[in-house]
Amino acid sequence: MKPIITALCFLLPAVSFAATAESADTAQVLGEIVVMETAAKAPVPLLPLDVKIIDSDIIDKSTETNLLPVLQNRIPGMFVTQRGLAGYGVSGGAAGTVNIRGVGSGNKVLFLIDGQPQWAGVFGHSLPDTYVTNDVQRVEVVSGPSSLLYGSGAMGGSVNLITRRPDREGFYGSLRAMGGSYGSQKYGAKAGFSHRKLRAFAAASYESTDGNRPGMHYWLANQYASVSYNFSNHWEAGANVMLTETKAHNPGSVHLAQPLQMWSKMFRTTTSVFVKNRYDISSGGIQAYYNYGKHTIDDGLRNGQPRDYLFNSKDFNMGITAYQTVKPWQGNDLSLGIDFKHWGGEAWNALKADGKQTPIVDRHVNEIAGYAMMQQALLNDRLSLNAGVRLEHSSQFGNEWVPQAGIIARPTDFNRIKFSFSKGFRSPNIRELYMYGPRNPLLKPERMNNFEVELRQWLLDGRLNIGAAFYYINGDNLIQQVMADGAPLNVNTGKFINKGFELDLSYRPHPLWIITANYAYLHTDTRILAAPRNKLFGQVSFTPGRWEFSIDVCRVWHMLTEETTEDYALLNARVAYTIPLSTPVTLFAKGDNLNATSYQINYGFPMPRATVMAGIEWKF
After folding, report:
1. Among 55, 249, 304, 451, which residue's Cβ finds the most Cβ atoms within 10 Å?
2. How many CB atoms lie within 10 A of CB 511?
3. 4: Cα within 13 Å, side-chain hemisphere
């Protein structure tokens, strides 16, 4: 604990520091309200890692209700498992595992909502059904370890969902409804309100489907609300809350003699309060958050008969994060922060007949960390040196050091080169530590080192943007099950080496046309499920007047399932027309897998053939 105490003594004064500024150059004034840019743990331009931002325009035009399909298409090295038309689920046959560059299974990619870590449920599953598009303004994706800033879970990368906030004076919003194949229905509403220094936003969505197979019906309801108040051009306080409830049915693999008749019901809530500051030479904030989840699962049949109990669990993740970026001298940015997390949960089986409970686990873990990252600009900002370190202390495994270093070079105004080394780690979850036969309370964190070079070039007056990234990943200490004294046991024994490259392109040949494409190649020395060797995505968009047209292709080669290797191509299209009324009304339709490809990502769960959705959106 002595190194942690020393780090905290060093960091605390910096977090409370807020420099005086004579002007608010970093705030954007719209009408009579001040829109303060989100004060992040570290400004994105300072990171020597591969960072991509997906904005609201891309999210809204996708007409998707879940974020993961949008991200998978736009992030070259990202791949997401799916089991059907909608709903990723938990327990047996669950999907929604996110791999970035072949790293992700076992919750190695950390999702955050406004910087709040969305730690996996007590039984170790990710929670992809909660990541909806209706309340998200933009997404910041880091391909590669983000453990310096976020700690455990960001081993393979991080996905930070920035929620929507009002950006203009008055009251405004939108309503959307759509329906289509397999009885699918999707509804969404959102509204914002701003008056001088007060801002509020609310959103709600609901979706349901019969599923592309009997016994795969699903529904989800999500609500979000936020409120904030600008005390001045430099200080802001606020709070937000998000509630998600979903139920997914799962018949199991098509190879079973009879359907399993499984279902899972999940309730999640995320809430936080924050105070942020932004000055010319300093910005930061402090945030307290609390995440809670409750799950009930019927695992279906056992030996052909319904089980007589339901699995239940509750999990929580609460904490405080404080951070500040200061400019102590010309060309220097110093980001400092402190994180405290208290997470855990309990699980039990409850008999269907009388509700009698059989406890399985009731545990929690405390983690506290301090970090510092510095960037120094040289040669008139043509060269930037970056270095940082994090020290994390866990009540379960002790101390973990996380270094990171990089160089950002800008030889001209139209190109950029990044070199970086970063370390990532993932703490074992409660299921691995304390649940079921393989449990092992002596587990240590999983670790990996990432070496990366990114090249980017802007051409044709910025209308053409081309990027390439090359990486080498070395992971060890992975948690795997082995046989010990005739019984399975979780141990830190796994290793892997992943290497590859990614390409991306964005080209606007004409104001009405835009072409985007990306490609990812992955070579690994181990068998990794749902991490394709090759993935290609390309889209062409055309927006003449009130019309919008887009067509895209996704091509995947050598994607491993439990039993097969999948190669497939998907053709998707979208069309929209905005009716010129005083308040715009847009009619839209989209088709997925229009070439009716037969494929599966989770073995035994065939994906739907061609599906069509159509709908209407009214903005007021």
Report:
1. 249
2. 8
3. 14
**φ and ψ at 83, to 5 degrees?**
-125, 0
User: Which amino acid appears at position 370 of this protein?
Assistant: G
Task: Please give the residue that has the higher pLDDT: either 193 or 88.
Answer: 193
pLDDT at 5: 38
Q: What is the pLDDT of residues 238-281, one digit of tens each?
A: 999 999 999 999 999 999 989 989 999 999 999 999 999 999 99
Q: What pLDDT was estimated at residue 240?
A: 95
Write down the pLDDT at residue 126. 75
CA distances to 93, 262, 301 from 256, in Å: 12, 13, 11
Q: To the nearest 10°, the Cα dihedral for 389, 272, 67, 364?
A: 70
Question: DSSP letter string over 125-172?
Answer: ---GGG-BSTTEEEEEEEES--HHHH-TT-SSEEEEEEEP---SSEEE
Contacts of 552 (CB under 8 A, 6+ apart): 73, 537, 538, 539, 540, 571, 572, 573
> Mean per-residue pLDDT for 199-212?
96
* DSSP codes, 196-251: TTEEEEEEEEEEEE--SSTT--EEEEEEEEEEEEESSSSEEEEEEEEEEEEEEEE-
Quick: pLDDT tens for 137-171: 999 999 999 999 999 999 999 999 999 988 889 99
Question: What's the pLDDT at 44?
Answer: 74
- 556-560 long-range CB contacts below 8 Å, 24 or more apart? 556/79, 556/532, 557/532, 557/533, 558/532, 558/533, 558/534, 559/79, 559/530, 559/531, 559/532, 559/533, 559/601, 560/527, 560/528, 560/529, 560/530, 560/531
Buried b (16+ CB within 10 A) or exposed e, 440-450: beebbbbbbeb
* β-strands 357-378, 383-394 pairing: antiparallel
Whether residue 382 contacts residue 411, with contact meaning beta carbons closer than 8 Å, is answered with: yes
> Does position 27 have pLDDT exceeding 80, yes or no?
no
Question: Nearest 10 degrees: CA dihedral of 20, 25, 30, 35?
Answer: -60
Q: In the predicted model, is pLDDT for residue 26 greater than 90?
A: no
Tokens of 545: 């007047």
pLDDT of residue 39: 54
